[in-house]
Amino acid sequence: MGLLAYLKTQFVLQLLLGFVFVVSGLIINFIQLLTCVLWPFNKQLYRRINTRLSYSLWSQLVMLLEWWSGTECTLYTDQATVEKFGKEHVIIILNHNYEIDFLCGWTMCERYGVLGSSKVLAKHELLKVPLIGWTWYFLEIVFCKRKWEEDRDTVFRGLDRLKDYPEFMWFLLYCEGTRFTEKKHQISMEVAESKGLPKLKYHLLPRTKGFTTTLKCLKGTVSAVYDVTLNFKDHQVPTLLGIINGKKYMADMKIRRFPVDEIPEDEKECANWLHKLYQEKDALQEHYHKEGTFPGPTITPPRRLWTLLNFLFWATLLLSPLINFACGVVVSGSPLLILGFSLFLIIASIAIRRLIGVTEIKKTGSSYGDEGAKKQN
After folding, report:
1. Closest Cα to residue 92, out of 119, 70, 71?
2. How many Cα atoms sit within 13 Å of 60 on the Cβ side?
3. Is 236 exposed, middle or buried (0-12, 13-18, 19+ CB in 10 A)?
C-alpha cells in the first residue's frame, strides 16, 4: 500500500472530509432558506440559484468518487446518444443493486452539466435526513410514501411544477422501488408469478405506477427516457465506505435512449413497455456476467476539475479555522476545552456514520410482499 492510499484510510482525514461536507452543507441549506424570499417574485431565479447551491454540495460526493477513490465510469452507448447528454430533459431508469449506484449516476450528471438540476422520485423518509433531504426540499424534489392513495395528489402537484424548469434536468427513477437483495428478489418473483409476468434474475419486478405517472405528467417536457444498466468489473461490490477509504472501482454503464414518442401513452401499455424493458435489462446483465462487458461501443467521458476545485474551496474556508482552534485547545491545556472538543469529534463522527448508513443495503427497507404494496402496481 502506497503512502497516499494509506493516508486515505486514516480516520482523522476521513473525519475532516466529513466535517467539510456537513458544515458546508449546513451553510448551503441556510443560504437556500434565504433564497425562499425570491420564489414569489422570480421563481426561475430561485431555481437557478438553488441548482448551483446544490451542485456545490453534491459535487463533493462526486469528488470522492472521481478524485479520492479514482473510480472510473465507462459508458456503453453510441456517439449520437452522447451528443444529446445535457441538452434535453429526460427520465433516467437505473437499476438499484449497489450502495453507490446514485453516485455513478451523479458523476455522469456532473460530466454533462446537469448535476445541480438532477431530480429524483424520493421516499418521504429522506426528507427528514439533514443535508440530503433538506437540499432536495429546496430543489423541489418529489417525495412520496409509496402508498399511491396518499401520494397521488402530492406526486401530480410536484411533477406539474417541474414542467417549466429552466435548467435541463435528468429525472432519476428507481423503478424497482428499493435496492436488490436476495430476500427482496425472492418475494418480488413471487409477486411476478402471481401476476403471470416473466421472472427476472438480476432485478426486482418494476413498480410501474411511478414511471407511468412521471411520464404522463412530464409529457411535453421530457423528450426521452434513458435506460441505464450498471455493473462493476470483476464482480466488485462497491460501498460508500470503500469510496471513503480510497478504494477504486471500475463501473460500466449501458445506456439506451428511447424517444418519448415511441413509448405508449396508454397506462397499461406503458406498464407493459416497462416490464419488457426490465426483461431486456436482465438480458444485458446476463451478458455482462458471462462476458465481463456490455455489448456496443464504449465512451469514457473525462472527469472535470470543477468538483475538485469546489471541494478545495470549502476545505480552505472551513479547515483553517478548525485546525487553528484545535491547536489553541491543545496549547491551552484546559481539561474542559479538551473534553469539549473531544466530545465534538465523537458527535461529528457518529453523525457522519449515520449519513453513510442511509446508503447501506442492509439498512434499506422494502414493502415488497405486503398486500398494500401489491395493490400499487
Report:
1. 119
2. 23
3. middle
3-state secondary structure of 235: helix
CA distance 28 to 130: 12
Selection from 119, 117, 138 nearest residue 127 by Cα: 138
8 A C-beta contact, residue 230 and residue 97:
yes
User: Residue written as cell 426540499?
Assistant: 137
Is the pLDDT at 73 greater than 50? The verdict is yes
Tell me the per-residue pLDDT of 287-328, one tens digit each, with 9 for 90 and over. Answer: 999 999 999 999 999 999 999 999 999 999 999 888 887 788
The set of residues, in sequence order, having a beta carbon less than 8 Å from that of 344 and lying 6+ positions away, is none
Positive or negative torsion for Cα 247, 61, 88, 206: positive
**Predicted model pTM:** 0.89
Using CA atoms, how far apart are residues 295 and 76, in angstroms rounded to an integer? Answer: 7
For residue 61, give the nearest of 11, 5, 105, 9 by alpha carbon. Answer: 105
Mode of pairing for the β-strands spanning 90-94 and 170-173: parallel
